[in-house]
Write a structure and sequence with these properties.
The protein is 24% helix and 38% strand. By secondary structure, the chain is an alpha/beta fold. A hairpin with a 2-residue loop joins strand 1 and strand 2. It is globular.
Length: 141
């Protein structure tokens, strides 16, 4: 499981002109990619890491501030462009595997007390955000 985490002052996801998820910061916008052998345990560990990651102002975490998170599925995090000009997506899990894992991250975050907004799995999403800092991290579980 892989996540790209950005500290944001605001972020939103729009599908077909409809806003399906949005947060006002400080908070985190998190793109989550799933590979074939990811597990529910990894999803829980990722959620705990995101909730406690001390990258908000004053080295605070979302748990310290009650800051919101916007979690968006992103299969392209497992794209491989090392050869040629066209990436392959072989390492990305298919939707029937990936969707429950992304849902597990969201469920685990909410169980920890987080306010979580989401995108819409498999949709053509337009993501808008203001990266604060800018701070962007890649987390592999």
């Amino acid at each position: 499981m892989r996540a790209v985490v950005q500290r944001v002052s605001e972020a939103s996801v729009t599908v077909g002109g409809e806003t399906v998820g949005s947060i006002l910061g400080p908070g985190l916008c998190v793109l989550v990619g799933v590979t074939h052998d990811d597990t529910a345990e990894q999803a829980e560990r990722l959620a705990a890491k995101l909730w406690s990651l001390r990258i908000l102002d004053g080295e605070k975490s979302c748990s310290d501030l009650g800051a919101p998170l916007l979690v968006i599925s992103q299969f392209t995090l497992y794209g491989d462009a090392r050869k040629g000009r066209r990436p392959t997506w072989n390492a990305a899990a298919p939707g029937e595997v990936a969707e429950p894992m992304v849902d597990a991250v969201v469920t685990a975050l909410r169980a920890l007390g987080a306010h979580v907004e989401t995108g819409r799995f498999g949709a053509d999403m337009k993501v808008a955000l203001v990266n604060d800092g800018p701070i962007t991290l890649v987390i592999d579980m």
